[in-house]
């Protein structure tokens, strides 16, 4: 299995990251990626960009180094109500959004509280994907959340960074992926790159999917047509208006 787009990465606008937009797209082009979602942290997380950063993303060219750049954000879970840390009108203007739990915004507590927060995010139509859910400090009811994501069309992320930095999260991630396979919930594989050197490197995540015989059709960024259809269905937007010939990106 492979990915043709990296749907979670950070630029120097999130000041704990180290690469510019141009550097990220250049790295994506070198690695044969067709698209990149720029998902810098939304303002509730310390050292994140101001909301003006997200309001002005439309000034970036849609293609950089031949790579389709998708405007996005990584929302911070702040409560169990599905509240976003960007204005709704601004959030709705973005191509692709991730929501994630971070200790500075939503300290770890009980599995029930984490479950309710994930369910609220899954039901928020402005949230496209639940980001890095496989973190041991945030246990939750996997079956309930995966079913909700399937029913709402919300993606569940298999995050390479979580597997690389903390291998002990692998068993949790595997359980989530098995539930996605069982319930037919669609996922996104993403690097969560904070440097251009990490972009597109999802080797651990892809090996896990291969090991459990995960269906390719459930991986939204496994091929251009699947990703294109996802954006047409969810955003009514054709991100590859020229058809996105995969031969441009892959041998």
Structure, explained:
With 251 residues, the protein is α/β, with parallel strands linked by helices. It has nine helices and eight strands. Strands 1, 2, 3, 4, 5, 6, 7 and 8 form an eight-stranded mixed β-sheet that branches. α4 (111-122) packs parallel to α5. The protein starts with a strand and ends in a 16-residue tail after the last helix. The model is unreliable at 246-251 (pLDDT under 50).
What structural keywords apply?
eight-stranded mixed beta sheet; 251 residues; disordered C terminus; 9 helices
- The radius of gyration computed from the alpha-carbon positions, rounded to a whole number of angstroms, is 16 Å
Number of strands: 8
Distinct helical segment count? 9
Fraction of residues in helices?
A: 25-40%
Order of helices and strands: EHEHEEHEHEHEHHEHH
Strand residues, percent: 5-15%
Global mean pLDDT: 95
Q: Tell me, what's the shape?
A: globular
Biggest sheet record: 8 strands, mixed
Structural class: alpha/beta
- List segments where confidence is low: pLDDT < 50 over at least 5 consecutive residues: 246-251
Give the CA-CA distance, first to last residue.
14 Å
């Amino acid at each position: 299995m492979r990915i043709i787009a990296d749907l979670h990465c950070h630029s120097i606008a999130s000041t704990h990251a180290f690469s510019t937009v141009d550097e990220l797209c250049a790295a994506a082009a070198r690695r044969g990626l067709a698209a990149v979602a720029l998902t810098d942290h939304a303002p509730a997380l310390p050292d994140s960009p101001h909301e003006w950063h997200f309001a002005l993303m439309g000034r970036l060219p849609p293609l950089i180094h031949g790579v389709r750049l998708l405007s996005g954000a990584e929302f911070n879970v702040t409560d169990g109500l599905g509240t976003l840390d960007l204005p709704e009108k601004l959030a709705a203007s973005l191509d692709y959004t991730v929501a994630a739990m971070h200790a500075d915004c939503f300290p770890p507590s009980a599995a029930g509280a984490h479950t309710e927060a994930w369910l609220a995010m899954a039901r928020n139509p402005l949230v496209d994907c639940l980001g890095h859910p496989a973190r041991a400090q945030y246990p939750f009811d996997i079956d309930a959340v995966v079913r909700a994501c399937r029913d709402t069309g919300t993606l569940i992320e298999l995050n390479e960074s979580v597997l690389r930095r903390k291998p002990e999260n692998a068993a949790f991630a595997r359980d989530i992926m098995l539930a996605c396979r069982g319930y037919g919930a669609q996922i996104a594989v993403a690097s969560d790159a904070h440097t251009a050197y990490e972009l597109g490197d999802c080797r651990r995540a892809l090996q896990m999917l291969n090991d459990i015989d995960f269906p390719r059709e459930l991986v939204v960024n496994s091929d251009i047509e699947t990703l294109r259809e996802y954006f047409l269905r969810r955003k009514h937007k054709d991100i590859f208006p020229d058809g996105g010939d995969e031969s441009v990106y892959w041998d």
